[in-house]
Amino acid sequence: MSRTEWNHAPKGAIPVSPLWQWPPRPLKVLKWYADGWFPLTINLGILALAFLSWALFSPTLETATTPGLWVLGIWLRNAVIITLLAGGLHLWFHAYAVQGTDYKYDPRPFPRKGRMFSFSDQLKDNMFWTIASGVTVWSLFETFAWWGLATGVLPQTTFAQTPIWFVAFFFLIPVWESFYFYWIHRLLHTNALYRFHALHHRNTDVGPWSGLSMHPVEHVMYFGTVLIHLVLPSSPVHVIFHLMFYALLAVTSHTGFEGLWFRNKKRVHLGMFHHQLHHRYFEVNYGNLDVPWDKLFGSFHDGTEAGKTMMRERFKSRKR
Length: 320
Description:
Strand content: under 5%
Number of helices: 11
């Protein structure tokens, strides 16, 4: 990609998970998923935060059988977490620009002003929709799950009952996310639903608060992923991790930077150029890289000039 179009772009084509390649390459698959979890990754951080929240900042199943202040407690816990994470990343990358523009994808400054944003301000717009709608919908789904597990509406399990499943479920959630997100995202780009998704696409350049800046209808669809717990036995910590994964990964993947660098070393991988391309061109890269739906359905942009050419040809063919 040209330097005039992007301030920073990864070298070479964006790879997809080797899990779907033929012939099978088990060592590459193992490395792909190991790199996604260890040694210091967003996935592992969210998992630790989920267990901490379960142990210290959540109701008991006995409490969750009836409505009460625990519902407000869940909302407050989630609001504090999202504010600390998105706010902290915004301060680091944009307000104080500690990293400057090093490894920032888009050359344009963030945030911006304009009448397309609520309050005519991108940051205020993003913060409002993230907290007022995003945290509220997230917390309502979590409240329903707590009540469902407490009353037997949702099937429950524990580590003692099914230790292998208990652990495996955490690793399967990101794969399910890749499957689920693609399809709801394609639906949101249809004529019937794009008017709701357009709020998120106000952000052609993104920052940490942009990830969960969505219309309430989109938030319901986005966090509806948790309804899989209606059929799969789970524990409260699975639900907490599942919803946190969707919420917090949206924040970290929209930083607009490839990663957090300190003393000339990337400490944490953050932004996804794959999704940055979607915010630039809208009709590419609807999913993510764990399940290659975009490759299968011809909407994949691999970040190269060849990928850009293929995208333009696809756009031309649709207009004929």
